[in-house]
Design brief:
The protein is mostly helical and 132 residues long. Helix content is 83%, strand content 0%. The protein has helices at residues 3-30, 32-39, 43-65, 71-94, 101-127. The longest helix has 28 residues, at 3-30. It is elongated.
Length: 132
C-alpha cells in the first residue's frame, strides 16, 4: 500500500475518533442532568467526563492535522482508547453506579466504539511508514 494512502487512512480514523469523542463529550458536558435522568448515571460524572472528552478530542484532532503524524502519539491515543473502554466496562461492573438498561447500553456502545477506533488506529499505524 502506498504511504500516502496509509497516512490518509490513519488521518481519517483519527479525525473520526476526534469527531465522535468531541460530540459525545459536548453532549455529556452540556446536558448532564438530562442524561442522568435518562440513564440513571450521575450528572456530575457526565459533566466532568464530558469536559475531559472534549479536551481529549481537541488533542486527537490536532494530532490528525500533523504531517507526519507522530507514531508515539498515535500509540498513546490507542492506549487511551483501550483504557477508556476498560474503565467503562469496570465502572459498569463495579457497582459504583447503578444505571438502567439504557445506561448499560450507553456504556456498552462506548466500549465497542473505542475498541473499534483503537483497532482501526492500530491498522493505520502499521500501514504508515516508520519515518512518520
Amino acid at each position: 500500500m502506498a504511504s500516502g494512502t496509509a497516512s490518509s487512512f490513519l488521518k481519517r480514523v483519527l479525525i473520526a475518533d476526534a469527531a465522535a469523542t468531541g460530540i459525545t463529550g459536548l453532549l455529556m458536558a452540556l446536558f448532564p442532568r438530562m442524561l442522568a435522568d435518562l440513564l440513571l448515571v450521575s450528572g456530575t460524572l457526565f459533566f466532568w467526563a464530558g469536559l475531559f472528552l472534549v479536551l481529549y478530542a481537541a488533542g486527537v484532532a490536532y494530532l490528525a492535522m500533523r504531517d507526519p503524524i507522530p507514531r508515539r502519539a498515535v500509540t498513546a491515543v490507542i492506549a487511551c482508547n483501550v483504557l477508556w473502554g476498560v474503565d467503562c466496562l469496570l465502572l459498569a461492573l463495579s457497582g459504583w453506579i447503578a444505571p438502567n438498561v439504557l445506561g448499560y447500553a450507553f456504556i456498552a456502545v462506548q466500549v465497542v466504539v473505542v475498541a473499534a477506533f483503537a483497532e482501526l488506529q492500530w491498522v493505520g499505524l502499521r500501514r504508515t511508514p516508520a519515518t512518520a
